[in-house]
Amino acid sequence: MKSGPSSSELTEVAESALTSVPEYWAEACKHLVKKDRVMKRLIPQFGDACLQSRGDAFSTLARSIVGQQISVKAAQTVWHRFAALPRKMTPGNVLKLKVDDMRAAGLSARKVEYLVDLSIHFDAGTVHVKDWQAMDDEAIIAELIAIRGIGRWTAEMFLIFYLRRPNVLPLDDVGLINGISQSYFSGEAVSRSDAREVAAAWAPYCSVATWYIWRSLDPLPVLGAE
C-alpha cells in the first residue's frame, strides 16, 4: 500500500502554472454533500480549493519514478539534478543520456532502467497519449503498468492528478484507507471491502471524495506533479 499524494512524490513539486478547475468539480461537490454525511461536513471546510495538476504526461510519470521510496525533499533534489541533464525533458532526449550521468544525478541503477523503459514506451508510441481522453480508466492503467517501475497506485495517481478522471478509487493508498478509518469508523482498522462500501455513495466522483479525504488528514493543498 502506498502513502497518499500529500506525502508522496506527486505533491507540490512543480513550478509550472496550475491548470483550471476540473469542469465536474462543482457538480461533484453537490452530489457528495447530498449523498454522504462525512462529505457534507468536510467539503465546506476547504472553500474553493480543488484538485489541480501541473506539467506534461511524460515528466509527471518520470518524476513519480524518481521519487519512489525516498522522501519528498530527496526526490526534489534528485529530480532537479536529473532534469538538468537533457536540454528539454522529452523521451528522445532521455534516451540520449549516458547512464553514468544519470547515476551521478542520484538515480539508482534500477530507476535508470525504469526511466529508460518509460522513455522507450513514449518514444515508440506504445502509450497512446493522444487517445487517452477517449479511453476508459482501466485501459489507460493497463498501458501504464506495462512500463517498468509503474504500478497500479502510480497509474491511479496519474489518472487523478494528470488526467483528472473523476471516478478513481485508489484502494492501495494508505492515506485514503486511514482517512476512511478516521472519518467513518472512529479510527478502527478498515478493509478494502469496507472502503468500497463507503465509496459506493461517492460514485461517480470517487476522485473528488478521495481528494477531500486526503485534505482531512493534511490541510495543505494536494497538487499534481510537474
From TrEMBL:
Keyword Magnesium assigned: no
Signal peptide: none
EC class: hydrolase
GO molecular function annotations of the record: alkylated DNA binding; DNA-3-methyladenine glycosylase activity; DNA-7-methylguanine glycosylase activity
Entry similarity comment: Belongs to the alkylbase DNA glycosidase AlkA family.
Protein name per its UniProtKB record: DNA-3-methyladenine glycosylase II
Catalytic activity: Hydrolysis of alkylated DNA, releasing 3-methyladenine, 3-methylguanine, 7-methylguanine and 7-methyladenine
Sorted UniProt keywords: DNA damage, DNA repair
UniProt keyword annotation of Transmembrane present: no
Pfam families named among the record's database cross-references: HhH-GPD (PF00730)
Listed GO CC annotations: cytoplasm; protein-DNA complex
